[in-house]
């Protein structure tokens, strides 16, 4: 039976031996695929209001579905937070710079409720902020799967909207750095995309 558990304040993957983590998943599940891919696989629900991450772990000898989340609040540029946080909040790419924080002044928060949210830099920065929160950072390779609303995933009677999915993949995999020193964020080496009804978790 699969257990479900929320993570503690310290990111689950912080200081974790990834090889050992994958080996434990392979052993308990009986699936060698975990070792073959060589990096963690995270399911991400990148919604307009909040972003949730889910991944498998071994707890007390059993497969457990772990969860963590952040609110989808980010402002373009370097914004002051009203409350400090131990998690770096500045995320930068060559095309954008965002402050990600639940404590931003409302006037600084960029609206995420757009049809093209999935292909905007703000979506990428929020995904990286959540990966950083769970401890996947500093160039750690990771694979993620995300979802799209059904009306965006499909293109009328033409089937899957591959052009938009490819744009989202390119956006998600665009390199991101963290903080004023520009330290590397996660290295997203794989991105899979599903209709939201299909991609809500493992």
CATH topology: Nucleotidyltransferase, domain 5
Helix content: 10-25%
Average pLDDT for all residues: 88
Strand content bin: 25-35%
- The number of helical elements comes to 5
Number of domains: 1
The beta-strand count equals: 11
Task: Say which CATH homologous superfamily is assigned.
Answer: ATPase, nucleotide binding domain
Radius of gyration: 17 Å
Can you identify the CATH class?
Alpha Beta
The oligomeric state is: single chain
Strand order of the largest sheet: 1-4-3-2-8-11
Distance between the termini: 14 Å
Q: What can be said about the biggest beta sheet?
A: 6 strands, mixed
Shape: globular
* Topology pattern, helix = H, strand = E: EHHEEEEEEHEHHEEE
Structural class label: alpha/beta
Q: Low-confidence stretches at least 5 residues in length (pLDDT < 50)?
A: none
CATH architecture: 2-Layer Sandwich
Folded structure, characterized:
The protein is α/β, with parallel strands linked by helices and 202 residues long. It has a single domain (3-195), classed as Nucleotidyltransferase, domain 5 (2-Layer Sandwich). It is built from 5 helices and 11 strands, in the order βααββββββαβααβββ. It has a 6-stranded mixed β-sheet. A 5-stranded antiparallel β-sheet has the order 5-7-6-9-10, with helices on one face. Strand 6 and strand 7 form a beta hairpin. The longest helix is centred in the middle third of the chain and has 13 residues, at 121-133. The two termini are 14 Å apart. The model has no long low-confidence stretch (mean pLDDT 88).
